[in-house]
Design a protein that fits this description.
The chain is about 20% helix and about 5% strand. The protein is mainly α and about 150 residues long. It folds into two domains: about 1-30; about 50-145, no CATH class. The longest helix is centred in the N-terminal third of the chain and has 22 residues, at about 1-25.
Length: about 150
């Protein structure tokens, strides 16, 4: 009986030691998270190439992601930002209330929509819309981060 008790206690000790040994094993850095690199790596960001065409010389505009999405800016904004309440070069071209509802002609600016005006007849821009780049972003040539099968509704 004593031998059985001694044997079982030794066996239990050995099993518990093997459990402790498994728990002490470290997880490699490249096995943590979704990325297959070390958590200590600092990858270089991809270089984003924006359109360099000057305003008024742009050909095709980018499709909107969804029906109510703000349109992308198809021309360079290099010398136009930062936009402030007092300095807004976008207004110089796009506040064109006479062009609202007209067919968009190549070479002419796309007019700001009626929703951007406090008074359309006077061409007075609603000052809640002065920061154009809050909604509109320059077009860039980038690859999709995630592929999808989204289709526009008709």
């Amino acid at each position: 009986m004593r031998k059985t008790l001694l044997l079982s206690s030794v066996l239990a000790s050995l099993l518990s030691l093997s459990a402790y040994a498994v728990q002490d094993q470290a997880i490699p850095d490249d096995a943590i998270g979704l990325s297959k690199t070390s958590v200590y790596d600092v990858p270089d960001p991809e270089v984003v190439v924006y359109g360099s065409a000057d305003a008024g010389t742009v050909g095709k505009r980018a499709d909107r992601s969804y029906w109510t999405a703000p349109p992308m800016i198809p021309h360079t904004t290099k010398d136009m930002v930062p936009i402030t309440r007092d300095t807004n070069l976008c207004k110089d071209c796009h506040v064109q209330p006479a062009l609202i509802g007209q067919k968009i002609v190549k070479g002419l600016p796309v007019p700001a929509p009626v929703s951007h005006y406090a008074n359309v007849k006077e061409g007075q821009l609603y000052m809640g819309r002065w920061n154009c780049t809050q909604c509109h972003a320059p077009q860039a040539k980038v690859k999709n981060l995630v592929n999808n099968n989204f289709k526009k509704s008709r």
